Amino acid sequence: MDTATPATPPRTLLSVEAAATQLSIGRTTMYALIKTGAIASIRIGRLRRVPAEALTTYTARLIAEQTAA
Fold first, then answer.
1. Could you count the other beta carbons within 10 Å of the beta carbon of residue 67?
2. What average pLDDT does the chain have?
3. Tell me: domain 13-68, CATH 2.40.128, correct?
4. pTM beyond 0.90
5. Hey, what long-range contacts does 52-56 have (CB within 8 A, 24 or more apart)?
6. Which terminus of the chain, N or C, has less C-beta within 10 A?
7. Domain residues of the chain, as ranges?
8. What are the tens digits of pLDDT across the range 26-49?
């Protein structure tokens, strides 16, 4: 019998705090990046959520900018 717990699927939407943790930055910095449009976010009711792929897009853009310079 398999007694292992099923793996939880990766989250599609992250809280601002979880997204900041993923990037190893502070919550205030994450809100600043959202405000400037550097990282996409959406509102669901009163909640602000960051799509997981927005973090990938942001880091890819930073890498491209730094390798091009």
1. 7
2. 93
3. no
4. no
5. 52/10, 52/11, 52/12, 52/13, 52/14, 54/19, 55/14, 55/19, 55/22, 55/23
6. N
7. 13-68
8. 999 999 999 999 999 999 999 999
